[in-house]
What does this fold into?
Amino acid sequence: MVLFKRKPVQFLQPPYAEDDQEIWHIPQTGEVFVTYEDYLNRLDFYKQKRFICQITGHSGLNFFEALESELAGAQEVEQAFPEPLKGPILRRVQFQTISRIDNLVDRLYEEFKSDFYPGEHVTVSVLTGERLTGVVRDKARFGSKCLADGTMSTPFSRYFVSLDDRDDEEAVVDDHNIWRDRKIFTKSVLRSFIKKTVTREAWTGAPWVVKEEIAVQFKIDTRVPHHLRWEYKLNERKLAQSQKRLSNQISGNGPDGTGLANGFQGPVRLPELKPASRPPKAPKAHGQNGDAGHGGKGNRTLFAKPEAGQFMHLPMPGNPFQFPLSFRNSQLPNMPPAASQPEPPPPPPPPKYPIEDLNLDPGNIVRPPIKFLCQDPPVEVEKKSTIGADILMKSVGYFLETWDTLNVYCEIFQLDSFTFDDFVEAMRVASADTRVQLFDEIHCAVLKVLVHSEADGGKVQFRLPEIEQEEDSDEEEEDGDDAEDGDEEQDPTPQPTARATRSSMAKMEAERLKAEAEAAEREEKELENAPKHRAEELLANYDWLDHLRKRHFRDGGWETIVVGLMHQLSKDERRKAVCEELLVELVPREIEPSLDSIRQQYASLNVNHRIQALQILCLLTAETKAVRRYMEDCSEQMTAFRKDKIDWQRQRKQALEELKALNEERKIQLPENLPPSPPRDPIQDANGDSKTDEVIEMTPTEEEIADTEDDAPRNVRRGLRGGNDRAAERQRQKEKEEERKKELEAAKAAPKQTKQFLKLLKEIQKKEDLIKKCEEEIGVIDNDLREADCARTRVLGKDRFWNRYYWFERNGMPYGGLPDSSTADAGYANGCIWVQGPDDLEREGYIDLPEDLQNNYKAQFNMTVPERKAKEEGHTSVYNARQWGYIDEPADVKKLIEWLDPRGFNELKLRKELVNYSGKILRHMENRQQYLGVPEEEKKPKEAEETNGVHIKTSNLSKRMNTRTRKSPVPEQPEYKCLQWSNTTAVDELGHLHSEPPAPAPPKAKRGGSRKKIVIEEVVEEPPAPMKTRSRKKA
It folds into this structure.
């Protein structure tokens, strides 16, 4: 049965429908719907990736995938599980109350792994030691018996096994000489069988019940005992709560907190001065319990309960057995009215996090401001970006998309990786005066991927719209004109001149005006349909595909090829408007088209048009076989990496288990290998002076030294008076020798234990080194998987307002670009976190809500969703998916992490990703700031050194020359960072840049020169080998 949120999916009951009414049907579930809207809603529910296959436990499936998985798993379980075991196991599982299926499986496995039933295929060991296979024919169970010493023997079984290939022989074996095949009865198979055949309701203590159809097959009773039913458990729980409440009231620990049964323990809460509540059937308010007293009706006033507002008699602290008068001679059913008052409803349970982000209470923390790389930000900002002074917001997405594509697939394009700042700068500053190699190489490399070279067949690698042939239509028009001329020639009969009247003249005037209007309208249409550019005129004598196959890129070659490509793409209705706009800029009507004019027009083209054209070219590369093959190779590599990772994880797990056992052994041996404590003096121990012992034991060497140097001659002069001192000295020396002997014996015995302990420590160190190595390898493989994941750009996550956050180094490329790139010393690739606004569906569904939903939200949080967005995002926001902002300050990244609330679904995932990558993000941001800022600070001393060098040289050439003129600043071109980039990859692999022709072949040799030249030319024009990922490259 398919599960949704760990509960079985409940199918809808069929609605009422007429016989001739149109219905919609879901065949997998048998559900019927009378409206198409209900049918679509149910299908959307079934297509969610939130269902679980009950048998295999696989999650993240839609309903139909989970149902298919269950059917396949049920068939496998049916075939794999032994038939004779099904009945006994199901009878044992029936009405079990073990809630966790893991514990139930463990218990059943331990119980049945040594128990066999008739009909099972088993392996037995006979007396000769031979192992034979057979089928259990019968089984005899012998219970335990009481032995002579009072203990109970272990119960056992005897099995009669019919042996295979021996029809007339049987083996009688006990529990220790019979086995099953290991693959037949395992915990995984047993778990799958239980999931397939048994169900359980979703409440605590619910029993496992065999499914109805299976219980009928095996004749198992499905009537749930009374004590295991939900109603019984509910009544039992209610009874326990009422008894607890009643005991609290009797003991004085009820809600009023009087505490009468425990004596006077503190200040007493005074009763409320309210009229006494009267039961509905009692005619009088007083004397209800008078009949229960000892005095009968005559003592009614004496033993009646106190009136409202009257103080109750309290016991003295010394006598705990005294009770108030209101409790004396009364019965439990007639409690005071205060006890029967309804309790206040319990507070609502706290929400279970995470929840929807916008359902959380608004906070006071404001998101750190974001910056904009454009001149038209969506909000007013204090300081606009100088880098994006001429960039429009609509072009920012093109910049990011193009830069990411070129860097992820840079091995296909044979390009060095480059930073995003260099890319933006190159697209802005490239001109006729400033030739930027990065700008030229990008375009030429992309064009090479789109069309193969002439040596490789010159095949176009993408779908190119066909140009309509207009010659046929022109010929048809000429034929039509000839036919009209022929008709006029065939009718030479002159028409008689009609008589001019007022009506005829008015009619002729009307026809003349109509003809003039039609002519004017025709001219307007011709002007509208007339091309606004001169691309067709340029391409009439220029075959751009042929020049692209021959790689004619120099002197305006690649710019003209782009014009030809745009002209042919304009025949596609989807790209017509964009391509026509670009062609108007590149081939205007007022300029004579030529290679030089197009090169000049491209050099002066606006940066927004440049990135738009490059984005179209990069989109076309996604259709090429080279990119698709690269993605397939990366996918295969990722599969291999995952297998390697699993192997290393298995080794680490095994090493951790072994290390745990070794540490336990080390703890056991550690006390024996600790340094021994100082020996104690037995004589002084007898005297019991422990403090003196410590002093004496701490100074034996000093006394020994003093005795050997000074006391020996002094004792010789003493004579007989020193006899006792000498005896004590001899005793002390004897004791020291005995202690030394003991220490030597201990030292002889110690090396065996020490060697064993040292060996154990070495084993622990080896295991720790192995675990460290496994973790390092797993980290390397994780990085390889990240770099090989090039199919799509991974988003870090979304915030509460559905803004998307991107860190483009997250996947598909090394963190700092290729390590052998010409600008690898920059230490970063993009260096920013980019924020994209929500798409239209998310904006309409979560932010710009209808008025009624906005009012409901405002009633709950005192503000609408747009007001909350303005408050919590500050003065910088993005409102749709075509708007981008970025964060480039390390401090702002930390503030962003603090701003995110992990109690929400979206921000929990986003915060986790930011925390995981925060170290690398901050480091690359710092590298970016250093790369962009430090060279400007070093510019002045560098210029000073160059000026001083010029002064020295000029003074050496001529002493009479005035060197002051050399110190005056010379106007120079501004130095751009992007000019430092060079395409070393193309030079290494091709021998030349993409924008330059191949290097000339070496001169001919005397013999075989022509053949060698041909071979060299073929090598130069040979296409690159299949691309490899950068997974194993290290910085």
